[in-house]
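User: What would this chain look like folded?
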Amino acid sequence: MSSSGAGPGDVMRSPTQLRTWAEAKYRAGHRGWLGLHHFGEECQFTWPLRPPTASVAEARTDAVSAWVTTWRRHRWPLGVEADIEWQTVAWRGLGRQTLPQRVRVVGAASLARLAQANEWVSLVAVARRLQLAWPDDDLSGVFPRIAGTLLDLDGSETTRFVEVVNWLVVNPESGLLPRELPIIGVDGKWLERHRRPVELLKAAVTGSSDLGLAVMPTRYSVRVLDPAIPGISERQPLAFAASVPELNRLPWRPDWVLVVENLQTLEALPFLPAVLAVFGKGNEAAGLAEVDWVKAARHLLYWGDLDTHGFRILGLVRQRLPQTESILMDKDTLRTFMTLAVVEPKPVAGPIGHLTQAELAALSLLHSENLRLEQERITISYARAVIEKRLHPKWSG
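Assistant: Here's the prediction, encoded as structure tokens.
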């Protein structure tokens, strides 16, 4: 392995620069070293010291002499296996000079110590312990992918990982829910936090990442806004939550389905004739394409946040349900409530597909101002007027 320099004009590099180089090298490479034989202990890293030319040496004799002395007196930190390669040159007017040419560091552990990355020892210790748990299986492809998890593991947590994976190996089709695992020390949310590393380790051990666990079905919250449906209270719309199979058993076939991005908005919606509203659960909104009466609705409206993420979700829904129309996601709504908009901290990077020209215009305005307008900031009275105008355009006069 070779290093990259600080810059083409940089000469007579110092031990301080060596530390900076080691830190950058560690940050860029340590995950990959976890997947190497003996965790990178056979690697060699070189760093050119860029000795001066004869002309530089003649012009800066004292500086060059001090630089050479610095490297002759350099002492490596405890546990670092490294050396300096020297070369003797003959310069006219200056005679023979022996100059340091490059630093050679042997092993990932040595480079980590140079970088003062004390975490490396812990990372390797946890990786070794996991490898010992399954000595006949190659985990080299897993360790680089779970480096962040390994860094957080202490002795007891490493033991817990081993116990969980072994239990799943012995019980490949348990059908239990993740919170039902009968393993001492594993609380209800443990597997939710560590599912991906567990899947990768199990795949390395068995060849399959399937944990054999039951999956909780996605449950969508629904509000029946049509007061004409039999059994609906006259005081407030009927609200309930159900899975996709349960929703498909409902006898209703609404003409209008309104999908909203946020639960608070769903709960605030008033009675609206012929409308059934559904909380799309953000990124799970596209899953409503599996609901028969959503697919069959004559009109499918989507109302999300006026921000890049809201438009991305709209695009995902329309990709599966092409008849989807947006509502309250336009430039007029944004301008009306502009004073309530805030800066969008992490906008979606890259293009968003499946949008209309009007939606793209609103998205462009959001981008230009770097804003987001949350759905809840739009008053229900304003929203109701816009929705009713869409439902009954002839009533708008």
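The longest strand covers residues 95-106. If you want, I can go into more detail on any region.
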